[in-house]
Amino acid sequence: MNLDDLIRSLTPEVYENLKNAVATGRWPNGRKLEDGQRELCMEAIIYYENTHDVPADQRVGYLDQGCKSGKDDDTQPLNIQ
Questions:
Q1: Contacts for 51 with CB less than 8 Å, ≥ 6 apart
Q2: 47 CB-side CA count, 13 A
Q3: Which of 62, 56, 8, 46 is nearest to 38 (CA)?
Q4: 3-state secondary structure of 46
Q5: How many CA atoms lie within 13 A of 70 on its CB side?
């Protein structure tokens, strides 16, 4: 089994555990995540999301860019007196 096969076989539960480990910096048992482990976990998460067609708005690191047309822009200028 190579790395691609391993990542393809990840279950949703393992995927969620990897996301939590990266977010908290700790494994589920409380041990600290090393820098190299964090990098590998992030690679596995991204690869999992790509191979399992996770919607873009549910992926790690997703940023909502909002409406770019400017039609729904309700910002008002701030006037300092």
A1: 7, 8
A2: 16
A3: 46
A4: helix
A5: 0
- Give the global pTM: 0.70
How far apart, in Å, do the first and last CA atoms of the chain sit?
68
Helix (H) or strand (E) holding 5: helix 3-8
pLDDT 10s digits, 20-69: 999 999 999 999 999 999 999 999 999 988 888 888 888 888 878 776 66
Between CA 68 and CA 51 the distance in angstroms is 29
Instruction: Judge contact between 25 and 45, C-beta under 8 A.
Output: no
For 10-39, give the DSSP string: --HHHHHHHHHHHHHSB-TTSPBPPHHHHH
Nearest one of 21, 10, 5 to 60, comparing CA atoms? 21
